[in-house]
Specification:
Order of helices and strands: HHHHHHHHHHHHHHHHHHHHHH
CATH topology: Growth Hormone, Chain: A
Low-confidence stretches: none
Largest sheet: none
Number of strands: 0
CATH class: Mainly Alpha
Mean pLDDT: 87
Subcellular location: Membrane
InterPro entries: MFS (IPR011701), MFS_dom (IPR020846), MFS_trans_sf (IPR036259), Sugar_transporter_CS (IPR005829)
Radius of gyration: 21 Å
Protein name: Permeases of the major facilitator superfamily
CATH superfamily: MFS general substrate transporter like domains
Number of helices: 22
GO molecular function: carboxylic acid transmembrane transporter activity
Helix content: over 70%
Structural class: mainly alpha
Strand content: under 5%
Number of domains: 1
Keywords: Membrane, Transmembrane, Transmembrane helix
Amino acid sequence: MGMLAEWRGLTKTQRSTFFACFLGWTLDAFDFFLLTVCLKAIATDFHVGIKQVAEAIFWTLAMRPVGAFLFGLMAERWGRRPTLMVNIIAFSVFELASAIAPTLPLFLVCRALFGVAMGGEWGVGAALAFETLPARGRGFFSGVLQEGYVVGNLLAAATYGLLFSHLHGTGIWTPWRVLFMIGASPALLAFYLRFKVEESPTWLEAKAEKTRNPHVGFEWGKLVTYLPSFLFLVVLMTAFTSFSHGTQDLYPTFLEKDRGLSSGMVGLVIVVGSLGALCGGIVCGSLSERFGRRKAIVVSSLLAIPMIPLWAWSHGVVAMAAGGFMMQLMVQGAWGVIPAHLNELSPGPVRAVFPGFAYQLGNLLSSRNGVFQAGLAQRFAGGMLGPVLSGTVLVVAVVVAAVTASGSEAKGVELSVAEETNA
């Protein structure tokens, strides 16, 4: 009831803005995960191995910080709403370009450009959402917004499962290309943003202030001034992205290789885990309103440790699904606090740049996580992933809790143009 009350308490403009930002992040993730479910089909089409096509994932992740920085600067100068519109059109166009790429090298270029666009969406969308929403209930909306990524994953899996097998025999438009063309549909969201969403009140306030005083506003020197705060956020997000990638990337392989589950059962376990992630983000984000951002993150991340036996050492589909649900409940529970926490810790004059850029740099620094885990398993565990996954959760959960606890908190701070330096 409390969550429903938070939603009902919003104005029509605030609801439209939050819905658009949530949908933007969801559809961004949908386009990204279409690649992961189509790897084998793409490799077959280009007559190469899966490893060669998997380079597209790396290039997408590697280019996301570039997009976070560039689109963040655009949002500071020209506004959150128009930048988000351009951003959504951009990742839709590059998704469509991927669908018609005739060769693998061109496909990799398209995915790298898609990564630039994808990297910009989270930071700009989160800034627009939280600068529009009231401070009260920010934790709940943080949890919902972050789990748009999980919803995008589920949509990609559902689209693949429902359509892929029915698309054979479509001539040059092989099934994966048709799915990627469907993935270009988020461009329509730009029209919704144009007619239903208003500009961030915070940015409008900053623009008005700059009109009165031309010396006020974004300056390159401010990025250097805020460097200590920024570096802290990068370390925090590196720990967080290691937490999520460390429990997700190789887990399907673990279920198939270590536990011998069929592909159907692996999919079932992953879907149940995704539902746990969705619940965790919303519930923990909401609880952070009462207990504070840091405490919610620390408790949720540390509670992942007791879930290790059920998650990595149990047998049978039911037990593994329960383990997947509980692990992702805790991991993504901690993640659900992040959109609000990062925006509250980011200085007002660079809020469109700071959260997204720090988030995506953390993603870049942890992008080789899966390779590192696989190497450890091969060297020390006879190829078995269970011990490595367990060790990853144990170490990273403690690091996430320690880094979070060592930082500051600004729960409920007014997201204005004031030069806040909270981190």
